[in-house]
Structure formats: C-alpha cells, structure tokens
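Re: Re: token formats

Sure, here are both.
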Amino acid sequence: MKDLQEKLKNPVWHSLQEAHKKFLIEYDGVKFYNPEINNFGAFYNPDKTKNASNEYSKKVEKFFFVSEDKTPIIDSNTIILEKKINGCQMVLENLIDVKITEKIILLTKDHIDEVYDLIWLVMPGFYQKRGFEMGKFFGIFKEKKLIAISGQRLQTNDFIEISSVVTHPEHTRKGYAKQLIYYTTKEILKENKLPILHTNRGNPAISLYEKLGYKLSRDMNWWLISKK
C-alpha cells in the first residue's frame, strides 16, 4: 500500500486509483479522468505518455498532465505542448480558527448550473458540469443568488483537495473565500482525511492559505496539451 507522502507526490494518479476509480480511463499504464468529469492525466513512466496522449486526445481537445517533477513525452505530429504551469501543493499543518459570519450550505445537484456559471464567470476554461461529482461543494448565497463557492476535487482514502474557490466579482474582499476554505477544511477533517490545495507559484492567495494553517509542501506542475 502506498503511504500518504507517496500519494501526495502523484495526486491525480492515486485519486484515480482510489476514490475516483469510477472516472478512470487508462491507456498503457497512463491514467486519465473521463473528460466529462475532468481533463487531468497522470503517469509514472514518461515513455508511455506519447501513445497514451494520442489516444486520449481523440476524446478531448485539451488536457493537462499533472506531475511533481517529470516531463511527459508527446507526439509533436498530432499534439502540442501549449504551456507548463508552475504550480505548488499545500497541505494543512495546523488549522487556524476563523469566525464564520455567513450561512454556508452544502450544494446539491439542483445547484449544478449555478456552480458552473460562477466558475466560468471567474475562471473560464476547463471546469465541466460533471466536475460537481468529484466531491462536495459549499456555497454562500445573497438575495437568492450563489455568490461564492468552494469545492472538493482530487481525493484518495487519505486526502481531499480543496478547489473551485470562487467569489463573484461584485462580492470580493468580504472574507467569503476565507470562510469557505476554513469550512471546507473542517468538513474534510471530519472524514479523517488530510486537506490539501494546489495553486500557481506566486499566487497572492498563498498568503491566505498560510494564514489558515496550510504550508507549501512541493512543486506540482500542470502541462497543458492540445490537439494540433
């Protein structure tokens, strides 16, 4: 059995090995999410990513390989590397208390469209509606409109990743993200799992995560691949 630190080094791989196994598509030992859920892939052996990428690209126009320190090999005749996003992983060390002043609710399938619309408003790109199936989502409403959310994404038997932390542009700087991250972190701890985060290197939000008790643990990079 892989220990926690080993899983954290390759979180997409182990999520698809465990909690998200039902979303797995695999080609020659390279693991991918069903693109209706998510467009992440993971590997241990870069020599296998060339053929696997060609196969997966038949299902999706763009996708990411997620890796701490390995570079995927691709077939430049059929696909291209658009960019490498230099990211990092953060893990909870000691949760620092935050006063909850807002009503935070567990979102249901009835909120899927609102979640999708809010994420695409703030972070247009790769979130799929069925990404809602990856974990729990929590939200804050104002005047019956969803204005801030946090969600769960990658997860194994040992950890759950907090993701999709989004606030409507008209409601920023009010502490909603801080409260949602804190609330989601506590919900993960109730499951006896380690809360983790991923973000870009240099993201100003890192200071917020650190104030909540998270610490930088390792690089975690995203390689964006697309069809030619």
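Second one below.
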Amino acid sequence: MKATNVVLALLCAMYFITYIDRVNVGTAASGIQHDLHLSNTELGLVFSAFAYPYLLFQIGGGWIADRFGARRTLFWGGLIWAAATVGTGLVGGLGSLFLFRFLLGFGEGATFPTATRAMQSWVPKPKRGYAQGLTHAFSRLGTAVTPPVIALLMVLFSWRLSFVIVGAVSFAWVLVWFWYFRDDPKEHPSITSEELHSLPPRPVLPSEKPKVPWGALIRRIWPVTVTYFCYGWGLWLYLNWIPLFFKNNYHMNLQHSALFSSSVFFAGVVGDTLGGMISDGLLRATGNVRLARIGVIVVGFLGALVSLVPIFFVHSTDTVALCLAGAFFFGELVIGPIWSVPMDIAPKYSGTAAGLMNSGSAFAAIVSPLTAGFVIDVTGNWYLPFLMTIAVLLLGAGCAFLMRPEQPFDEPLLSAAAVKPAAAE
C-alpha cells in the first residue's frame, strides 16, 4: 500500500476513535445520570466540559502543529485524550466527571487542525476535499457505531468499563501513529518518487518556526469561523442529546434508543463522503473554488433546515428518525468543502487557519448542549432545541457567502498592500 494511503488511513482511524471517545458519554448518559444523580442541566454541563479546552486549543493546537509538526503534536495529544477516556470510567461524582471530560477536550483540542497540517503535506491539492470528507466520514462512522457498541458494553459489563475499553484502543492508535508518520513525506522510508511528485511542496519546514500574521489571518478566517459555529450548533446537539431524545421522548429502552440514534448518525457518514467528492468534482469541472466550496456548503445548510421542519408536525418515531437523518446528511455535506477552505486560503498556515475555523464549532460545543439541557429542564419540551437549530442553520447559510476561498492569503500581496499607503503619503 502507498505510504500516502496509509497516512490517510491512520488519520481516518484517528477521526473514528476520537469521535467514539467524545460521543460515548451521550449513550452512557442514562447510566451516568442515574448513578451520579444528575439533572439534565448538570448533564448539559458535563457534555460541554469537553469543549472549553477544545475551544482554547483549536487556535493554540493549530499553531503548535505548524510549529512543531503533526507527528509530535498528535502523539502527546493522543496520550492525554486516551488517559482521560480511561479516567472517565473511574469518576465518583459531577466534579470528577467534569474534570476528565475537560481533560479529554484538552487532549483532542489540537487533533483536527493538526490533521489538516498533516494533509497539507501528504494529500495532493485536487484531493483535499475528498480527504477532508473521507476523514470526517470516519468521525461520523465512529459516531454511528458508538450508540450500539457502548450500549452493548453497558449491558455486558458497565458504563464505566466501556470507557476503559475505548481508552485502551486510543492508546494503541497513538503508538502506531508515532511509529509510522513523518512530518516531511521525503523522510518516510516507504514513500515513492511518484507519490512525492504528486504532493505539494512544503511551504515551511517545522524548524523554520514561521511567525503567524495573526491579525491579517483572523480577518480572513472569521467568516469561516462563524459559518462553522452555525454548523457546530446542530452537530453538538445531535452528538450529545439524540440518544436521550429517543430514550426519554419516546420512552425507549437503551438498546432501541441506541439503534435509532445509530441510524440517524449513519446518514452523516454518507454526507461527509459525498460533500467532499462533490466539492472536488465541481472544482475539477469548473475551476471555480468559490462555487465548489460555498455552493455545497449552502446546499448543506438549507437541506438540513428543510429536513428538520416536519418533526414539529409529524411525531411518528420512524418519520422523525428519517427527518433527523436527512438533516444530519445535509449538514454533513458541509464538512468536506469547509475544511478545505483553510487550505485554500492559507496553505502556509493551514493548521492555524483550521484551528481558527474549528474554534467556531468548539464554542458551539459549549453553548449548544448547555442551552438544550436548560431548555429541556425548564419546559420539558424536547423539540425546542431543534427549533433553535433551524434558526442557526439559516444564519449559517447566509454567513457562508462572506467566505472567500478563491482569494489565497498571499503574504507578498499583504506586503504590497502595506506599501501602497506609504507610497500615497
């Protein structure tokens, strides 16, 4: 197998495992809530604990990856998130549960920006949308298999041991990654000349430690960040509350709620893969980066919005599950193109730019589950959080038009722009 394919497979495995580690708490929530005597608001606080350091390390983690390389960044981050997952199975109350979920976010905070940094060197430019869509499809595959897998482990053992088992899998991935991956493809013993020729030149070596033009980069990325916040609002509502939505709103047992949740999440696997493929196909056919990225993103937002509307009028379990799956499918079309945008705009600082973008989803991971838990506790209505999501999706579709992926963040152009005012004086 080609070294480039192995690296992509390792990144797919990482996305798969990290999502199991972050969404397993949603399936285990019924057991956790019962054993630790938590309200829905307290459970929402637990769901959000992951996101506080996750938000912080989107930007910091991307910068670390640009500065020190993806190999070491994912190694140390992986050790932390694996240990935190195991520790979650040992908690004794709300405080310790919050702490280990917080540590999980600390360890996983840099993972996706760092993966983007790795793809910058290991994935040919025409395949970036596909690579981003494929890796995120594996994250949704992890999301989809988590409910039945965790439910089975809870039935066979306990919710506590389920965290220990998946944490051990994380440790195994970390060791394989550090053994196989190299920051510079040229240094890999299995790379072929044909593969090297297809890869983009590395703009900056880690040893050069580039200084990030923070102000200019933030000004270019903020529309992407806001758009990704709108996507993340719905995502984190799904990941944290869908299992309990089916269990409590439709009075299902753990196994049935897990199966319904899994069926919804599997739609995201297809959406992630297709979104990247469609975006890359449009780019090859038209050469229009803006159409290839923003066109797919807007269709994803509007499709998700339309798919959610029927759940307020038809309450058949099967119909609601189908609508939720459709909304998740369309929402996941956004992933491939939007994760390509930081690489389109700022290839030299792709890790940092991706971190700036993903901070939007990380912030949504704080406020979305907290808001949902509070609204459910106050009103007893499990549908209101989805009504709020419709409004946020509409905002995201509008914000997408503010992104400019067709205009690269080019430092010579920045320098020239800085010279013009001086010349005018």
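Residues 3-183+213-411 form a domain with the Growth Hormone; Chain: A; fold (CATH 1.20.1250.20). The chain has a mean pLDDT of 84.
- S.
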